[in-house]
Structure formats: structure tokens, C-alpha cells
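I hope you will forgive my troubling you with a question about protein structure. The full record is reproduced below for your convenience:

——
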Amino acid sequence: MNPNRQPTAEQLCQWDRRYYWHAFTQMAEYEPLVFDRAEGCVLVDIHGRRFIDGVSSLWCNLHGHRHPAIDAAVRGQLQRVAHVTSLGASNPTTIMLAKRLVEITPPGLEHVFFSDDGATAVEVALKMAFQYWRQRPEPRPEKSLFVALEQAYHGDTLGAVSVGGVERFHAMFGPLLFRTLRVPAPDTYRTPPGVPSERLLEHHLRQMETVLAEHHQQIAAVILEPLVQAAAGMIMHPPGYLRGVRELTRRYDVLLIADEVAVGFGRTGKMFACQHESVTPDLLCLAKGITGGYLPLAATLATEEIYNAFLGHYAESKTFFHGHTYGGNPLAAAAALACLDVFEQEKTLEQLPAKIARLQEHLERLSRLPHVGDARQCGLIGAVELVRDKQTKEPFAWEEKRGIRVCAAAMSRGVWLRPLGNVIVIMPPLAISLEQLDQIAEAVEYGISQQFGN
């Protein structure tokens, strides 16, 4: 092949099927969808078709693609140094990012450990919590269990899967996982029988307390996604649940790990979901939007108390023996700093209320459609759940691919979406315009009408 000759669209599709093993994709059924370039909130494929990015390229793009400020920051860093290891070395860009993250996250989180993605941020937090109890001034080595919510998703590495609870993703790997204590997810749509909505919060906090009261002597930490369990199908928690769990973990001397990989950086209407209930966790996991969707980067923030437990003489082996080759990469750190600058310069958070309100209007309309059991929202996160029966909330069988079919129809209206089973996820870049939000909602409605003939 002539090295100067660009492959044709047909060749790229052939090679895509032949060589590229895609994540969470049944390759026997895969039809190539190859995006070649992007402009703002629009993706353009190799055939020239344009699609609004309705899921922010898997929930990570915040300010749109090819944002000039982030582009310039990455180019500028390339002229200095592309990579410096975090093992016993540092660089100015990543140092400044660490300081900036401490300044904007909930108070009390004073130290930042960088890794590569959401799963690794969670792995770091789990290992820090485990090691902390063995090295603090009054060691508690018996505290080695973790509490997680049912249907939780915290990533796909083995530690993250161990605290995960999505059966379809994780059941295969059961023999490889460590034991985790499970608490029912506080789902505001699929509520427990006989529990009225006004008592839902009390009910779920009581279940959490039951587990903590019985096992707190062995529990190292509770891990949860604040406000929204994303990959579980955008399960929305009742207001006050996060605050209640934080109070329970303090009462029973258990750490709290907040996984804000999906919900951090403005997704819920505030910079961090924990800020809605004035909660500071002991460990905070960040990724996805941290670089505006440009480069892989993750961060785990820890309190002073946890950090101090790892300090000592070299011979004591209190060091956190964990690291990632590209953790704290300067290019990614430059993108992250520019992403935070854009939040300030473009007043991104201040622009969100109007967009959140417009999304709410559309979700209220969609909720009235037959076979839409629930249309729920948290900030600029929207979810439309398809059900066989609105009254009983009976779901469609996963194998029917109802969500996939709705999203396929939406593509004919110029909107790219990726569902979670029967849940249509609407999670566009924060930079989305009101007109583009309208187009996304229209495409979802069209997709549902094509699927059910409404």
C-alpha cells in the first residue's frame, strides 16, 4: 500500500471490522460507525454525515470538540514536554493541576493522586482505604470489607468490578473478585413494594445503617456514585441520601469513597455532585470530563488524615506502592487546566440553568408517551426508560434491543446516542445549545415513535 495514499471509507470500514475490537460491543453484529472529525457539539463521520454528540463521546466531552483554548493548551505543552513520570518526578503543569483540583473540590480534600481513567481512580481509592486502616496511628487491620450499592458500576478492572453490581457486565468474573457487602440502590423510580415516596429516603438509610451497625468493625469504606448511578441506567437517588450516608459513615467510623467519574465537572448543575449536599468524602474519584474529553486522565483526592498514614521512613514501607505509567501526564494535565479555565471564562455553570430547564420541558413531554415508564433528570443528565407496561413498570427483555433501535432511528435525525439497555441516555456536552437540545429531544421522540408507532 502506498504510504501517502489515504484509505477509502470502504477500506476503513473493512479494517474496522477486521482488526479493531470495540469495548462493550458484540463484534459479530457490529456495523462500522467511523467518526473522522468534529466541530463543537457535532461529530462528522467518514461519509460526511453530521451528528449532534448526544452522549458527549461517552459522557466525557464538556466544552465541545476542538475547543480553541484546549487545543492551544495541548499544542503549547507539546513544545515543552509530552510526558514525565510521576514516580519520583514531577512537572509544572501537573503540579498546577493538583493545586487547582484541591481548590475547587469539597473542602478537606488536600492531596491528589493521578492515574489514567475512572476505573483506575477507583482502584486507587480502594487500595488507599485498605492500606490506611493498617498504617494509621491506631491500626485497624481487620477493616478490609467494602460496602457498595446494588447495580453499582465503578469500572472494569478487578477491584472496581468487585465493588460493582451490574450482573450482566460482571457475573462472568465472580470467581476473581473479593467479597463486598451490598445495599439496595435507592432508586426513585423502581421503589420497594409498600414504601411510599415520602419514606424512601428513611427506608434506604435504614438499610445502610443495618449493614454498618452489624459489620462496621470489618468495613473499610462505603463506595457510591453521588446522586446518580450512571451505568446502572441513570438511577436517581432521593435528595438527602448522600448526606445521610456521610453521617452514617462518620458515626460508624467508616470511610466514604465518592465516585464522581460520571457525575463530576458540572454534569449535575454544580461542579461536583457532592456539593449539592455539602458533603466531603474521604476519597473522591474523578475522570471523564477532567480534560474536557481530550486525553485520558483521572484523579483520586484524599484527606490529610489518609495522606498522613502513608508518611514515614523508607524502611517502614508505608509508601503507596501503586502507579500508572501515564498518570499525571503533562499533555493531559494541560488539557485539564484549560478545561477548568473554560469553565471560568465562558461561565459554563452559570449557563446551565436554562439548558437544564429546557431539557426538563422535553423530558416532561416524553414521559407522557406510551412505553415511556420514566423520564428522569439530574442537571444536564437525562434518561428516558422504555417499559412494556407503564403501570407495572415491567421492562422489555434486554434481548429485544429496544433502546438500541430507538437510538438507531434517532441517527436518521442527525443525533448520535448510545443507550443503557432500555434507557435512552441524554447527556450532551455542557456547551450544547438550546436548539441542539431541541433536536436531540425531537430525535428521541421520533425514535420512540418509530419503535412503537406512537
Summary: The two ends are 51 Å apart (CA to CA). The chain has a mean pLDDT of 97. DSSP finds 14 helices and 17 strands in the chain.
